[in-house]
Design brief:
There is one protein chain. α1 (about 1-20) packs across α3, α3 (about 40-55) crosses α5 (about 80-95) and α5 runs antiparallel to α6. This protein starts with a helix and ends in a 17-residue tail after the last helix. By secondary structure, the protein is mainly α. The chain is about 70% helix and about 0% strand.
Length: about 150
């Protein structure tokens, strides 16, 4: 689903902007769309991702910190940090997206927009976080549904 990929790229750009400028989500979304256009589906999903990630940021940041040995959020590259936030939001709150898709998309975003080590860095943290979230329910996916064969 190419539009979801575009929505994630847009969400990453806006989350980065929020991180740098320290502005609220609504203002950042309005600012982005005043300068760029995109398909309506990508616009809707990116806005959901941005607003959701921002509204659950404290919880998301705690989870990331709990799985990132030797790396505080402040030490992480802004791109990596915001990819992780976006992916954790999607894992926790987007029930219609299989966790494997979320993990693969986050790793790909890291490879495309981060440093040469971003993909493996993001993969390591998300793997640990995903295992922690799933916990004793290994026969179910993160959203409570029976596990996907490819999981």
């Amino acid at each position: 689903m190419r539009r979801r990929r575009k929505a994630r790229e847009i969400a990453l750009q806006v989350l980065y902007q929020i991180d740098v400028l320290n502005i609220d989500a609504g203002e950042a979304v309005d600012l982005f769309w005043s300068h760029f256009s995109g398909p309506e589906e990508a616009r809707k999903y990116s806005t959901e991702l941005i607003e959701g990630t921002c509204s659950h940021r404290e919880e998301i940041d705690r989870l990331i910190c709990s799985c990132s040995e030797n790396w505080s959020l402040e030490r992480m590259a802004r791109v990596d940090r915001n990819i992780l936030r976006l992916a954790v939001y999607e894992l926790l709150y987007c029930r219609n997206v299989p966790p494997k898709v979320t993990l693969n998309e986050a790793i790909d975003l890291g490879k495309d927009y981060g440093s040469e080590n971003s993909g493996s860095f993001i993969n390591g943290i998300l793997d640990a976080l995903y295992a922690k979230i799933r916990g004793p329910h290994a026969d179910q996916d993160i959203n409570g549904a029976p596990g996907h064969p490819e999981s």
